[in-house]
Amino acid sequence: IVNEILRLNEDPNVQGLALDLPESLYSSKVLSAVKPEKDVDGLSDINLGRLVRGGANDCLVPPTACAVMELLEDLGGKTVVLLGAGGAVGAALQCMLQREGAATLSCQWRAPQLQAKLHHADVVVVGSTKPDDVPLSWIKPGTTVISCSHDLLSEKHNYGQQNNYAAENAVSSLAIAMRMQNMVKNMERWIQSQQYRKWDLRCLKLQPLSPVPSDIEISRAQSPKAVDVLAKEIGLLTDEIEIYGQTKAKVRLSLLERLKNQPDGKYVLVAGITPTPLGEGKSTVTVGLVQALTAHLNINSFACLRQPSQGPTFGVKGGAAGGGYAQVIPMEEFNLHLTGDIHAITAANNLLAAAIDARILHENTQSDKALYNRLVPVVNGMRGFSAIQLARLRRLGINKTDPGALTEEEISKFVRLDIDPSTITWQRVVDTNDRFLRKITVGQANTEKGFVRQAQFDIAVASEIMAILALTTSLQDMKERLGKMVVANDKKGEPVTAEDLGVTGALAVLMKDAIKPTLMQTLEGTPVFVHAGPFANIAHGNSSVLADKIALKLVGEKGFVVTEAGFGADIGMEKFFNIKCRASGLVPSVVVLVATVRALKMHGGGPSVTAGAPLKKEYTEENLQLVADGCCNLQKQIQITQLFGVPVVVALNVFKTDSPAEVDLVCKIAKQSGAFDAVPCDHWSAGGRGAVKLAQAVEKAANQKTSFKYLYSLEV
């Protein structure tokens, strides 16, 4: 019974659970197994606890207890004896009777001085079968006697024909009605739970230190909330998250269906001026902005970030969790394996690479008949095409479904892809900067029968599968996109796809968990989605469409989703507009353009910068001319943004070496160049409080009327 209850607890298609069991089976173990939110009989410990505490509106009351109370009126000052009515129903009755002002006494049939207790009772509620040695004469005439038991469908007990027992046969029918009422109430609650929930977010307090400690010290000094607590605070249901440890959780795509009628929030993109080795701090601004919006202005907001590759993380660039007091925490979890999405991409990518080489080998060494027997084997005396093979036959113009009906020519056409090895574009990947794998030779083992070719490893996030993950809108959409990936040409120059190799289903299965965004939090306890991590120089350089879509539903109509584009605005931002927005159909509200005085000085002709080397004096001393000369880059990026019809707010990341005059000059030039506003920020050293003015400017800009447009059509 318990196993069946636990199964039904986890069934999303079951919203309520009622128990009809023999009385002997109503044990505490059985009753406590029922989820409180599905407990239509109100017998679980949590429901009873809420009733006792006084939260009758917050719980479901046992139907039998409700039925008894419906039959009784004007209980104030009366004495009620609960006879043989124990367990959850007895406890509920005692609580409800006392609340109505009745003096309530609970006892068993073998209780001492039972006759005297019954003689003084105005009402007797019988909860179990009367023993033969307890005469009815012990109950004084005129006493109201109500019989109730766990068996709601039968009332066989007979306590006599006097009018003071008239109510006993009404309990079971009324209890059934009350149970139905509980079912309706429970369904109403479930429907309400599926609607958008107002956030009840508890932000974490920051106590910034000066000088600012290292990023890892700051991250480890903060105690993050448990991720299931964070999920509940932002309106996620328990069956919509898959928890990974204490601080990470995958969010299921079913949420999009649940909240499909919920209006989206505002959509904000963080981009930067042309990057320099000094770094502009786009991730830091993204995190600082959401900390300011939610922790300091009480506006729902979500940051959507890319998952960092281990290549840059273990290289010169480092991680991508933000920095200072504007970080995603725990920093180590964010920057390392996270929930294994990049590993899933690596596995899928390399499975496809292995399938290419294996197919070439088999086609080179086997006859058409042998290949056909391998691809369409006889199983239990039957041979049949799979769905993906039938699709390939249709693409070849062969409209047959019986494997035995194909001609020799059709079999040859079906089994041979005739891949030209010199045209293979699909490479193996590894998420490490391993320079000695950039050019390799494969096939040197004797078992490969002389099929040797030059190949290479790319970094894992450069895989086309990563770009697909970031653009996909559903599992089915991802499967279709994976199937269309071109891996090589055949010897006639025609493209060969993953679908032709028959591995699309296997790739989709490997990616089934990676498609779900990962929920984390900032230093101030505000929510973050980490999902996908394509580079902007080889792909589109943005986090996933799915993470953005889910976040836009969760923040509500007045909330903000802040996402980030890689590299400079002239690559990451343009790809965000031209590629990501086309794929998603989402329209951005504001662009936040990140700049620093140091980077502008470099664009203005300042000396070259080497990562790790001390900065030259041009970058540490005031130089207004150098700043003014470099602002041409900022002005160009503002102009590009305006071409798309989106308002732009410039966020100037302030460093301690920046002079007030330099900061003022950049803000002045930015506004003169068409920026809606330009705001100095010091969230790196102060957390969200240092980005409050930026958040206010973004909120105002988002209320402006936008005229977003694409700069070119996809029509040829």
Mean pLDDT: 90
| CATH architecture label of the largest domain | 3-Layer(aba) Sandwich
Low-confidence stretches: 150-164
Q: Provide the β-strand percentage band.
A: 5-15%
Q: Give the helix tally.
A: 29
What class, by secondary structure content?
alpha/beta
**CATH topology group of the largest domain:** Rossmann fold
Quantity of strands, as a count:
24
CATH class of the largest domain: Alpha Beta
Largest sheet: 12 strands, mixed
Distance between the termini: 64 Å
Global shape: flat
CATH superfamily of the largest domain: P-loop containing nucleotide triphosphate hydrolases
Please tell me how large the radius of gyration is.
Answer: 35 Å
How many domains in all?
3
Approximately how much helix is present in the residues?
A: 25-40%
GO molecular function, one term: formate-tetrahydrofolate ligase activity
GO cellular component, one term: mitochondrion
Family: In the N-terminal section; belongs to the tetrahydrofolate dehydrogenase/cyclohydrolase family. In the C-terminal section; belongs to the formate--tetrahydrofolate ligase family.
Subunit structure: Homodimer.
What does this structure look like?
By secondary structure, the chain is α/β, with parallel strands linked by helices. The protein has three domains: 1-153 and 164-193, NAD(P)-binding Rossmann-like Domain (Rossmann fold); 215-339 and 513-703, 3-Layer(aba) Sandwich (Rossmann fold); 342-511, 2-Layer Sandwich (Domain 2, N(10)-formyltetrahydrofolate synthetase). The protein has 29 helices and 24 strands. The strands form six sheets. Strands 5, 6, 7, 8, 9, 10, 19, 20, 21, 22, 23 and 24 form a twelve-stranded mixed sheet that branches. The chain has a four-stranded parallel sheet with strand order 2-1-3-4. Strands 11-12 form a two-stranded antiparallel ribbon. Helix 4 packs across helix 7, helix 11 (282-296) crosses helix 29 (692-702) and helix 15 packs across helix 17. The radius of gyration is 35 Å and the shape is flat. Residues 150-164 have low confidence and may be disordered. Keywords: ATP-binding, Ligase, Nucleotide-binding, One-carbon metabolism. This is formate--tetrahydrofolate ligase. It is an enzyme of class 6 (ligase). Its EC number is 6.3.4.3. It comes from Steatornis caripensis (Oilbird).
